Amino acid sequence: MIHYAMKGKLLGGDCIYTKEEKSTVKKSYDVTLISISLAVVLAIVLLLSIFPEQGTAIADQLFGFLTQLFGSPVLLFTFGVVVFLGYLAFSKYGEIRLGKEAPQFKTKSWIAMMLTAGLGSATVYWAFVEWSFYYNTPGLGAEAQSSLAYEWSLAYNFFHWGISAWALYCIAALPIAYHFYVRKNKGLSLSSVIESITGFKANGVVGKIVDIIFIFTCLGGLSITLGLSVPLLSQAIASILGIEKTFTIDLVIIAVISVIFTLSAYLGIEKGVKRVTDLNTVFVLIFIGIIFFIGPSLFTLSNTTNAIGLMMQNFVHMSLWTDPIDNGSFPETWTIFYWLYWVTYAPFMGIFVARISRGRRIKELIFNMLISGSVGCWVFFGILQNLSMDAHINGIVDVAGRLGEDGGNQAIIDVLYSLPASAFFIIFFVVVSILFLASTLDSASYTLAATATKGLRDHEDPSSLHRLFWCFVVVLVPMTMIFIDAPLNTVKTAAIVTSIPLMAILVVMIYGLIRWMREDVKDLPAHVVKEKYKIENEKKAKKSA
Ligand code: NM2
Question: Which of 119, 126, 342 is the best mutation target for the ligand 1 pocket, counting ligand atoms within 8 Å of the beta carbon and taking the most?
Fold first, then answer.
């Protein structure tokens, strides 16, 4: 170890480790990138707090204009990605292994990490109320607040949290993993992938712009997540304690989350993050399991089955529906908005998933992200959406009618109150949300640290101190937003607007992936590709399987 550390020093911090070496390295930080991106974020936070109305107006206009202009391309792109990944999974290219080693994590933990990192705590908010937005203003021409609107509302919810959405995560992960493990290039950041594809230096202007866009959207996405869920959690805790919701409760929640995730991020992916995500998965399973059995189980089963059928039958139409004649706002407000929302998370998920997927075949990554990811969402959403929809249909809580009050927060809490032993469920709800949040912040701080570490290589992690720094930033920036009462919608819009250039970056990455795969295996038949990419150290593979 000392030998390697010294070697690292001699090479000016550019350590070269052998394959077996697993290490947290002392690489130099990209100070320019860190300072520019923090300055940009700070400037935006300040501007938003000084000119909230103008900021909102500009962001809304920009959102309207860009979704009009790029709406159809965004829909076509997302649909195209699904088709492309489907092809890839079944072709010989699917046999390529991302690093010829045994996978580092057991499949169960690997899927749990993907699911819990990609879904933040706002998922719990959407899981209760999303159907009611669609019920009030449905898609595909259904009549508002009708029986059909109920049916479509769940189908649309599954669509927006299904195959296409996970395909957007997957298409970001594949080129990064290919660049890192198959091509063995250095750098676990978007700019280094772009450099190995286009030749534009990660350290040059283009590279910096790419990483700044990434850091900005990542922090924007997390601000939406925290901004949506912290007030909801405070309200839930205040309602159990029978006190008024205050900013102090917000702070206590943030403090608890920070301790959990900072500690786990500090301990690293294997010792910390994996434990938090495993715990998160167990808690989520217990939470939805109990709710399924004591809630409207039969309704949940039949409505979920129906929604899956409705969604699958109409998948292509839902994917490409632009409402061209009536010019309704549903496609922009929801489908296009959602794809862009998933894209704000896509690069950080791409980097994180790449990091945990060494040793997996391409087809494994595709099947698990698209199928396990979607099924995980459908089970979670199926149980919670139906609980809330059932409470609405039976007149227990007017979920759809009370959306306007506070975005539906109190309605969610009232739905939980409708359960027997409600205090227990509310506490459970808070714990599950906190764990969701901690695991997302964990993976986000890891990827930000990886992005801002120069020339990271396979088997290397950014230093603990550097990860801690980003833990601090990912909490501080969204907290400031909540504290200065920055208009959340504007933050949301701004983060989403930036995901349009991110899509362009994704297109370049897809081009690179295709080029690399063709160069590597184009002339080889499938069985040779399979053989070429088999695990080199079988013993180790058996042990971890
Ligand atoms: N998605 C929609 O905090 C959250 O759960 C936000 C983000 C998955 C990109 C959800």
Answer: 119
| Domains of the chain: total | 1
Q: Does the CB atom of residue 380 touch ligand 1 within 6 A? A: no
In a domain, 20, yes or no: no
The answer to the question of residue 5 being in a domain is no
Looking at the DSSP bridge assignments, the partners of residue 23 are: 460
Within-domain flag for 36: yes
Q: How many CA atoms lie within 13 A of 149 on its CB side?
A: 17
- Give the model confidence (pLDDT) of 287-315 as tens digits: 999 999 999 999 999 999 999 999 999 99
Please give the mean pLDDT across all residues of the chain. 87
Q: Which domain holds residue 264?
A: 28-324+336-539
Query: Taking 90 as the threshold, does the pLDDT of residue 467 lie above it?
Result: no
The total of other beta-carbon atoms located within 10 Å of residue 275's CB is: 15
Q: Output the CA 347–ligand 1 centroid distance in Å.
A: 13
Tell me the pLDDT tens digit for each residue of 133-175: 999 999 998 999 999 999 999 999 999 999 999 999 999 999 9
Give the pLDDT band of residue 57 (cuts 50, 70, 90): confident
Q: Distance, CA 117 to ligand 1 centroid (Å)? A: 9
- Distance in angstroms (rounded) separating the CA atoms of residues 155 and 152: 5
**Triad 461, 464, 465: Cα angle to 5°:** 130
- Which protein residue's CA is at the shortest distance from atom 4 of ligand 1? 120
Structural contact between residues 154 and 307, judged by C-beta atoms closer than 8 angstroms: yes
